[in-house]
Hints:
The protein is an alpha/beta fold. It has helices at 43-51, 92-97, 112-124, 140-153, 170-185, 200-203, 220-223, 226-233; strands spanning 5-14, 17-27, 32-36, 58-63, 66-67, 75-78, 158-162, 189-193, 206-211, 213-219. It is built from eight helices and ten strands.
Amino acid sequence: MTESITASNISVSYSGKQVVSNVSFTFAPGSLIGILGPNGAGKSTLMKAMLGLIRKDSGTTRIGSNSIDKKRKIIAYVPQRSNIDWNFPIVVKDTVLLGTYPKLGLFHRPSKADKAWAMECLKQVGMQDFADRQIGELSGGQQQRVFLARALAQKADYFFLDEPFVGIDVSSEEVIIEILRKLKDAGKTVLVVHHDLSKVKSYFDELILMNKELIDAGPVEQVFREKNMTRAYERPMTMFDDLEVQM
């Protein structure tokens, strides 16, 4: 059974300049959560800090009563595509198979069952026909699907995706969001760094809205409101009239 995820007082500085300031929130399991804010708001930094991938000034992340370090095997992370070496010589099926490694244990190699599961994950994202392709030969959307398949292969309960919809085709975006919805419906917790305001209401049921500090966190209808958006984006909400932001 999955548990709530809680961030408490997370702050991060780079070269003495604070980029995330005292952010706290709690979400119940079975949530599809968008992390929203303008460029430079600290969205990706917050996600990395929660996962312990970068040094924090302060703060903790807990899953239930446990530190996130004790839950590593049930956490999957999909980084931004720009942070991945696409020239690394690895084929698609082996990329996905890497998702099984955290649960294999020391000195164990993937079994036939692990390889079959990796192929099943490729089928879920519609990429089984590309299993023997080099990862660098794929389009941006195809690459993103493969990395989602790798996350699925981990059999994780908590999924962290950093800007998964940037630079991908419409069909890949539709495949990815549908899988994320299914994960949520299965009781998984999914956090997504996101930038496209027009998709917020159709993609997420919960939001973290920030601009270095937390503006608001909670259900979309609570957070995605004129007052909050004006504060976060530091512009009048007339800029977003077509986005049906709550008045």
